[in-house]
Amino acid sequence: MDRFSSTTLFPDTLAGTRDDLTEQLTIIWEQIKAPLIVPLLRIAVFLCLLMSILLFIERVYMGIVITLVKLFGRKSDKRYKWESLKDDVEIGNSCYPMVLVQIPMYNEKEVYQLSIGAACGLSWPSDRIIIQVLDDSTDPIIKNLVSMECQRWASKGIDIRYEIRDNRNGYKAGALKEGLKHPYVKQCDYVAIFDADFQPEPDFLWRTIPFLVHNPQLGLVQARWKFVNADECLMTRMQEMSLDYHFTVEQEVGSSTYAFFGFNGTAGVWRIAALEEAGGWKDRTTVEDMDLAVRASLKGWKFLYLSALKVKNELPSTFKAYRYQQHRWSCGPANLFRKMFMEIIRNKVNSSCNRCYVNFITA
């Protein structure tokens, strides 16, 4: 077969030696750089500057609000009605709402005993609470250990249910969604959610449920995270500093101004009616907690953040775990913003949710 000539492979203007080719490419680049590349770069720089200005304005706004809140702000029990639930001699424990406690798990060999023990240790009438362990573990040894731990607490009179699935579709969101489908959940009014490494204090429900009982507009009560391993290494210390700003400023400002703030995915109590009205759990992004919070806010539900109520948990102490967490937190909000942009724009029920634009963009 005859070889292709250089004039066949290249235009006449690019034919010649390698030096000539480089020179010709340089000339072409100089010709297209000004009319094409430079305007695109200018647009990119303008967008970056605009986002930086928005971020700066948000930080200034939050700084002013949090200062006013600390100086003059009302406490949670002043902004929302709170009264301790009292016994009723005539109807007994029926005066207390039924509470479901969900603990999603996945191969949690190190912490499963602590999390189950903390949930079973919650102070609440024993006949008005159901502990639901949602185990998606793939290791049969760990599944057996978790099952035995549930049986041990059941033998003590705790109403604890060990639930497994045939697949891991939807991951955490899928597990929580499947957990709400069981018949015994229909009798429950509220659901408290704790990840496997979270250990709530015994009085957690007594401090959260009354807000939901006495304020029908509230759909969520969110507690603060307390990091027990913050001093383990430099990486955990840096994470604590970053997350402390989120809890001390961002969540507090959102709650104090009756505006939108995101659900952190754990250490919170949902009104099941609000969760169902919002469409339930969806696994379309890696931030299923924020997805649910936005949809509930669009329906008009209000959220309350309790900074004084802290739930112990652990920070990722290895770079691999930290990288996975940050990737999920970084990509998820952007993907969710893309999916819900038009829905937020069209929303007329809760215009204050439009503030989540900044939260999505700067997440």
UniProtKB/TrEMBL annotation:
UniProt-recorded name of the protein? glucomannan 4-beta-mannosyltransferase
Q: Which InterPro entries match?
A: Glyco_trans_2-like, Nucleotide-diphossugar_trans
Q: Which GO terms describe its biological process?
A: cell wall organization
Q: Identify the residues that the record assigns to the Glycosyltransferase 2-like domain, covering every copy.
A: 190-337
Catalytic activity, reaction form:
GDP-mannose + (glucomannan)n = GDP + (glucomannan)n+1
Its cellular-component GO annotations read: Golgi membrane
Task: Classify the protein's membrane topology as the record does.
Answer: Multi-pass membrane protein
Gene Ontology MF terms in the entry: glucomannan 4-beta-mannosyltransferase activity; mannan synthase activity
Spell out the family assignment given in the record's similarity comment.
Belongs to the glycosyltransferase 2 family. Plant cellulose synthase-like A subfamily.
The protein's location, in the record's own words, is: Golgi apparatus membrane
Principal localisation: Golgi
Which Gene3D superfamilies does the protein's record reference? Answer: Spore Coat Polysaccharide Biosynthesis Protein SpsA, Chain A
Its EC number(s): 2.4.1.32
Q: In the UniProt record, does the keyword Transferase occur?
A: yes
The transmembrane segments are 43-72
Domain of life from the UniProt record: Eukaryota
> Which keywords describe this protein according to UniProt?
Cell wall biogenesis/degradation, Glycosyltransferase, Golgi apparatus, Membrane, Transferase, Transmembrane, Transmembrane helix
The record's section on CDD domains has: CESA_CaSu_A2
Which species expresses this protein natively? Solanum tuberosum
